[in-house]
Fold:
Amino acid sequence: MNTVDTIAALASGVNGAVAILRLSGEQALNIAHRLIGKVRLDGDNTRKMMLVRIGFDHALAVYFKGPASYTGEDVVEFQCHGGARVAKSVLNLLLNQPECRLAEPGEFTFRAFVNGKLDLVQSEAVADLIESNNDLAMKIASRQLDGALSNRLHELRENLLFILSECESRLDFPEENLDWDEELPEKIAAALAQVQHLLDSAKRGDILRNGVKTVIVGKPNAGKSSLLNFLLGYDRAIVTDIAGTTRDSLEESVIIRDIPVRLIDTAGLRENAEEVERIGIERSYKHLDEAQVVFWMLDASAPDVDELIKYSGKNSNIIAVWNKCDLISDDMPLPELPVESVRISVLKGTGLEALSDAFEKAVWGMGDKSEEADFAVNARHAALLEEVKNMLGEAILNCSSGEFEIAAVQLHAAMRNIGFITGETADADILGEIFSRFCIGK
Structure:
């Protein structure tokens, strides 16, 4: 991406009430004035919505003079009628101007990064905010966009800079009897604790961004597909009284207790199945091995727990779901199991709150939950922070043994890694890969 051209793109969906188109760059205002005629967007009208005619449409236009804009450049936004044909006609008018081209994916946010409006962590938070599909993910992305994670990283970098200066002063003035800080290993250990605190949020970030792979397993006719349909709120899977109706896995997305879930219904587990069903059962076991949480469906009216007990040692997040409890009395004892158990009736819609409670407990046992969490590092951040963690661990040992030159090299490397996270030292390939994930217009 270059930052010289003036760029344009549709910045909203179409076929709604309003479509928003955005221009950014040195020629944005000139292009806008050329297309709208006598109405002026600058001067006293800067940052004011002005009624204009552009092409065949009457639209609202607003001018943001750089650097007080999203990209840090001159920006003009048009709000036209939302029909696809109208929006496309306005976009074509903009792109037909010789100074203007179509923006690449993420280019508006890239320019905001280049012009110092956002760092790389905040830029990634823009994408997270757009893609968030639950309230908790949205809140954390918003806080990271406001700088919650960036501030932690800048604080960590400043602490390491102080420690590095102490190490290098020992190298520059080895013969001087200066007031050396004798607690450098302890200070590095404190920085290491900061890194670990950041890393502890990685699991939470993975859950919120990628969802929890949750597999529904059990014997035929235990109610697996009925539970899938109930949680989705519509009939996705075929349900009959015939054993083996589900022969292949079905995957759908759902939100449970504000947690994104990849919910997978599987073929019923049984022996002596015919060939097609057997293939489905093999896939069931494969999903079971990969599951983060398992809903193991059991028929309360005909308890059979042998397979669950055999498998329970392989996955700590199995929830035994006793279905069809409407067919037994409330005080009827059920077999004791080495996993969390809940009683439900999908048919009657009872016990589902208890199931949601057990699911939430299982998920946040994998990654710390906090409604007030300010940040959740992503996989890229975590990989770099793991390297920082190792570097600081070695730096502690070298400082303790007086090897300050080696410790300084490790501290420099740790600071460089933090710069890769925030974008201060990121190279063009990393930036290109990150911003290519964005949609055009953002």
